[in-house]
Structure formats: C-alpha cells, structure tokens
Amino acid sequence: MSEPVGGAGERSSAAVAAEVMDAVRALRRGGLIGLPTETVYGLGADASNPQAVARIFAAKERPANHPLIVHLHRPRQMAVWARAVPLAAWELAEACWPGPLTLILPRSSMVADAVTGGLDTVALRVPAHPLALQVLEEFGGGIAAPSANRHKKISPTTAQDVRDELGDKVDVLLDGGPCRVGIESTIVDLSTGTLRVLRPGAIAAAELQQITGLAVDQTIEASLRCPGRMDLHYAPQAMVLPVPLEQVPHELAQQMARGARVGVLSAQRGPAWPGNIPWLPLGTSPAEQAQQLYQRLREADRMRLDVLIVVAPSDDGLGCALRDRLWRAAGRGAAPA
Ligand code: AMP
Ligand code: MG
C-alpha cells in the first residue's frame, strides 16, 4: 500500500484488506457502508441496485428526488455512466481525479432513476482516499454515496461522526481517519455545454477555468437540481451568525444581553471579547479552516450553544466554499459575492 489508510489504531495491510472485503460483500448484498473519502464520509450503496440506493434515502431521511454522487475507481468509467463525455470532462478528470471534484454529465441508459432522482444527468467523482479507492477497485462498479449524515445536518468528517448519527444504519463502517479536505466536493455541471459551478469546494472556479480554458459560470441558483443548494443545510442546533471580525464585540454584547449561550468560531480570539466567552478556534489557513469546520460546528452542539458567531472567511478560492457552507448553516441561502 502506497499511502496510509489512517483511522483508529494501526492495522496491518491484511486487516485492512479484510475490512475492504467486508465492505465489498455488504455492497454486493445490497447493504450500506460508511465510506471515508478525502472530502467527508459517505453513506455508500451499489449504484446499480435500486433497492440498495433506496436504503440510502431511508437512512438519511432524504427526499427521493435529490440526486446522489456516483463514485468510481477510474476516470475511464465515466464513459459507462455518462452517454456523452465532453473534452472538458476528460481534462478535469485528468487534472483533478482522484480528488474533490464532481462532474455532472448526461446520464447513460444504465443509470437507475433512483440515483439521479429522475434527472437526465448523473454526478460522477473519483475520490482521493486510499480506502475508498480500494473498495471501488475490489467492487468494480459505481458506489452511490451522499454524505453520511441525516438530511440537512452536518456532514461527518470522522468515522465516529458516522457512528453517532447513522451507526445503526450501516452494515460496515470503514475508519479512514479524519477527512483531509473536510468539506464536500466542488460540483461542476458540464451537461449544458458550459461550465457551471453548482457547489463551491476545494477546487476553485479559477482552477477549472485554467484547466479547461473555458469560462466558468459561478451563479449558483437555489434549485432542487442541486439539493446541496437548499437555503438551510449543514446546520448545527445553534443559530449561526457569520459577521466581519470588527462586528464580533457588538454582536456578542447583543446576544449576551438577551441571555443567549453564545460562542465564537474564529482563527484568533479578539482582545476585546469577554474572557468567559467560549471560543472555538478555527485554523488560520483556509485549508485548515475547511478541515476543521464541521468538527467545530459539532462541538458547538455539544456545548449546547444557542448562538455561534462566526468570523466570515474571505471570499476567494476555498474561502468562497467556506462562506457558502457557513451561510447555509445560518439558513441564509447563498453567501453574498
Ligand atoms: P451530498 O453528498 O449529500 O452533498 O449530496 C450529493 C450532491 O450532489 C447534492 O448536493 C446533489 O445536488 C449533487 N448532485 C448529484 N447528482 C446531481 C445532478 N444530476 N445534478 C445536479 N446535482 C447533483
Ligand atoms: Mg450532504
């Protein structure tokens, strides 16, 4: 094995191979697996088995018309799942896969309605996690996998998160350690002849443009075509309030005056903040912030905060994806440009 698989405790490669085969057998039986990827943990099923896919929707309590991402082992499998693969898709796959990029393409006739929510398109991705790739290689087919959380809740970034939320629903849970990226993949729609970002992620629009030489449309529309785009999503119990750094003291004073249990999520603690205010530290680089974001939102819930004030990240590159998740956690829809 070229890369460590991560996860709780050191396992021999024989032990890891046995876990992988358990997961593959569960998939073949139509079961559900907890699958580590570099973005977030997925709830996986055999994408070509409609009954297995139906179990994903039941476990997540997710509306059946919300499409799923099909995970593949190799880019060339795109030609099986999509009926047309434009040059830009091959270029993006070559440059970014395995990695945090999902391509939306016209679906082929073998794709089940259960996977696409009846849409004429299919979402495809090759994930960059050694365990996910081993499972995909042994399984051979596509694995449909949305994030392994209940509908509208925070995506899991550790095996323990999956255990806590859906532990009784998965037949096999693979522990691949904490997710390296920590937020969901960039989703790009290539089905209409242009490049449209439906969900910002670790691969920025500028990168997509550079790879393909095509202009990228970043106008994100709230629509059922892309349920990650619902106004309320990735939400903790606490009310999330994204504000600029300089407004934190004012917002803190207001929330404390109304008796709310309030905390702050930010890279640094401000000098003027009251000493007894719970502070949830968030890494200083955008990559660290993305990696830690969902763990911190879960901590806010464990602390039973009513309100979580969040210092809004910058709006370029990965910051754009972070703002998107925060604004949706706040139930405010798309982040302002
Ligand atoms: P999740 O992994 O839970 O974030 O869900 C998968 C994401 O992929 C959702 O945000 C879907 O909207 C998106 N998705 C999957 N298939 C399609 C498709 N055919 N068209 C647009 N978005 C899709
Ligand atoms: Mg999700």
Give structural attributes.
DHBP synthase, globular, ten-stranded mixed β-sheet, 337 residues, binds magnesium ion, Rossmann fold, binds adenosine monophosphate
Structural notes for this entry:
33% of the residues lie in helices and 16% in strands. The chain has 337 residues and is α/β, with parallel strands linked by helices. The strands form two sheets. A ten-stranded mixed sheet has the order 7-1-2-6-3-5-4-8-9-10, sandwiched between helices. A four-stranded parallel sheet has the order 11-14-12-13, sandwiched between helices. A hairpin with a 5-residue loop joins strand 8 and strand 9 (195-199). The radius of gyration is 20 Å and the shape is globular. Mean pLDDT is 91; it is low at 222-228. Bound molecules: adenosine monophosphate and magnesium ion. Magnesium ion binds next to loops.
Mean pLDDT: 91
Cα-atom radius of gyration:
20 Å
- The total number of structural domains is 2
Main sheet specs: 10 strands, mixed
Compose a concise summary of this entry.
The protein has 337 residues and is α/β, with parallel strands linked by helices. Helices cover 33% and strands 16% of the residues.
Give the secondary structure arrangement, pairings included.
Blueprint: H1 13-28, E1 33-35, E2 42-46, H2 50-60, E3 69-71, H3 78-81, H4 87-96, E4 101-106, H5 113-116, E5 121-125, H6 130-139, E6 143-144, H7 159-166, E7 172-173, E8 186-189, E9 195-199, H8 205-212, E10 216-217, E11 239-243, H9 248-257, E12 262-266, E13 279-281, H10 286-302, E14 307-311, H11 318-329
